[in-house]
Structure prediction request, 350 residues.
Amino acid sequence: MTFEDFENYSYFYDLPEEDESPQSSLSIAHMISLSFYSVAFLLGVPGNAIVIWFMGFKWDKSVSTLWFLNLAIADFIFVLFLPLYITYVAMGFHWPFGKWLCKMNSFIALLNMFASVFFLTFISLDRYIRLVHPVFSYKYRTVRNTLILSGIIWMSAAVIGGPALYFRDTATVLNNVTICYNNFHVHDRELILLTHHILIWVRLAFGYLFPLVTMVICYSLLIVKVKRRTVLTSSRLFWTIIAVVVAFFVCWTPYHIFSIVELSAHHDENLHDLLQDGIPLSTGLGFINSCLNPILYVLISKKFQAQVKTTVSEVLKLALWEVSRSGTVSEQLWSSDNTHAPVHYCETAQ
Prediction:
C-alpha cells in the first residue's frame, strides 16, 4: 500500500507489517495506553456505579446532585464499552467485533467526551449564577429546568458525536487484520481533507475551547465579584468542581493537541510514527478521566465520605448479623439433634 492508500485512515492504530502477527506489533507506547484503558475500566465501573447509586437513589434530588449524577452516567456508559477497545489494542489493533460495534464504540467515546465537558460547563455556570445572581437563581434554578437542560445536553453531545456512526467503518488490511477506522467514503483527496478538518475543528471548538473559555470566565468572575471570598474558597463543593474541571482538561488536552497534529500528517509522512504512539497514549489519558471523578468526590467531599463510611458500615453490620444468625441457627440445630438423640437411642434399645 502507498501513502495515498492511507489518506482515508485514522492514525489510532499501528498497522503491522505483512510478516508480523497482530500481537507482535504492540509498541511500548501501546502497552502503556493499554494499561491506561484497563485502569479506567477497573476503577471507573465500580466508582461511577457508587456515585450513581448515592446521587440517584440515596440522596435527595437537587440541582447540584443532578449535574454530578449526569456526569457519572456519561462516564459509566463509556467505561462499560472499554473492554472492546482493550481487546482491540491487546490484539494488535485487530477489531473482531464487526462494523456496528466499531461505530457504536467510537460514538460512545465521543458522546462521553462531549457530555462530560458540557455538564462541567453548566456546573460552572450554575455555580456562578447561584452566587452572583441569587434572584435569577431562585426563580429559574429548579430541578425541572435542570432536567430539561440535561436532556438538551445529551442530545447536543449525541449530535456532535453522531458523525462517528456514519464515518467509522471496518476494513481488512495486511495479514487479515481488521481495523476500525474513519472511512470518509470518497476518493477525492481534497474532500477527505476537508471532512477531516471539519470534524477535528468542531470537536476542538465545542469539546474544548468553548467550555474552557466559559469556565475560566465563570470562575474569574466568581473570584472578583464574590466579596466574601473565604466563603467561596472554603466550600467543599467549590474545590470539588475545580478539581473535576482541572482533571478533565489535563486528561483531554493532549488528545486535542494530537488531533490537530493528525491533520498535518496528510502532508507530512514523518509525523506518522509520532501519531502512532501519541494518539493511543493521549486517548488513554483521556479515558483515565472517566475514573477520576468518583475518586475526587471521595477525597474532597465530606458528605460523600460520610455516606460511603455509613454505607460500608451498614453492609458490614448486615454481613456480621447474618453470619452470627447463621451460627446461632446451626448451634440450635446441633443442640436439637443432641437432645433427641438419646430418646431415639432408648427407643431402639427397647
